[in-house]
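By way of example, what follows is a protein record of this kind.
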Amino acid sequence: MITSLSLPPLNYLLVNFLTFSLFFIFLIKKSKQHKNLKYFFLYGWLFGFGYFAISLYWISIALTFDQNFDFLFPLALLIIPTFLALFYGLVSFFFIILKPIKIISSFLVFSLIFGITEYIRGSILTGFPWNLIIYSFSNQLEFLGVLSILGTYGLNLFCISLFTCPAIFIISGTKKNIGVCTFFLIFALSFLIYGFSYKEKFNKADKIINDFNVRVIGSNISIDRFYSNVNSVLVIEELIKISNPNMSQKTIFIWPEGILPEISQRELKEYKWLFENKFNENHLLIMGINSQSIENNVKRYFNSLSVYDHELNLINHYNKINLVPFGEFLPFERILKNIGLKPLTNNYESFSRGKKRDIIELIGKNFSLKILPLICYEIIYSGKISNDHNFDLIVNISEDGWFGNSVGPKQHFVHSVLRAIESGKYVVRSANNGMAAIINPIGMIEQKVKFGQSGHVDFEESRKIQPTIFSIYGNKIFVFLILLYIFLIFSFNKIKNE
């Protein structure tokens, strides 16, 4: 439970040195008393349950908007942390099975199992890599600069070791063991030094000034529009007002995810009259809007990011690939629908997955821009956003109103910071009931619309850096670190046994 205090928005990361060290010491002490694996699984599960119950309480808020789901509210508060805690149960379970006799090797094995398990948590089924311990450093941008090399999972593995280091001083203060822990502390310091130099290099890079503007919209339109007959005309008028288009300025406007739930992608053109005399050929509009298609006589629905010209002609679109379980689709739908369960959005119909995430090219008389589209939840996946590095900008659109005035939208936002650093690209984020912002490649928030407010921010100039090591190799870096840890484990065992 205490570990959750280290996460955004509080970021009391020092508590991790206490909780991770105590957890490790506890497992070591208990391993000397008994070997019953059931108990060790329970120890890890309890650690995880407290962590997730406190840090993810906000997920259940999404169930409060519809009376049909009231009965699920208390279950969600328990079921979600109960399930996620299973992964931490596996950490302590396998740690006891694989634990070497020597304490320093045990320390490395503990870190390795924990780091690998967190990767599995972020990958299995649809994956849920939320609240990895690395997010404790989300407001320490200089330290996070090394994400450009190691990536989130790689740095997360290192941080687990770092937070567990004090336990080694307590359990076994031998010179060799202290030396290993000192090594991790020195590396942490070297990451800071790298981060400062990386920041300085970025700030010295030449500025690129576009002859067009990207205007990112942050709105605060009620989530009730999904369940009541909210006048779509009023919503569009509000968004146009926030956009404040200038007829003489070349501008790409970005509106949030699913902002018009009652209007489909093809139907938007029926509202062309609202855009006349406000938009012209100098303008493009990017927005989140649902789309439909018929395949094999079956109607399929998609959560889409769509690009329109000033006359609302559809130029391009992207269908979301990583859907939110129970929110956007119902796992095991045929079975669960029989007991009354259904998705929260899209009028209780499941969305279908898109086939591929392609770079969207906005090439024409007035614009030249390549964007990588990420819709809401998709920003949380480290190393999985794209294999194509030939783009200028990450565009993330989101609807964060499902989680009210909780820590959820704030936790969601920091994922954008880490993706910017990993990719070495700017992230522009348009959100309803969340935080809209422009985040540069070193993770700095250059402009933002504060949570709970409406407004816009403009992206007109940038600095360019070389492709990051992580953007080229992705999670292969994490695999390399796993192999390095295994090598160190066997090396220390060998040295100590000679």
Summary: The chain has two domains: 2-203+474-497, 210-464. The first strand starts at residue 207 and ends at 219. The mean pLDDT is 91. The longest helix spans residues 175-204.
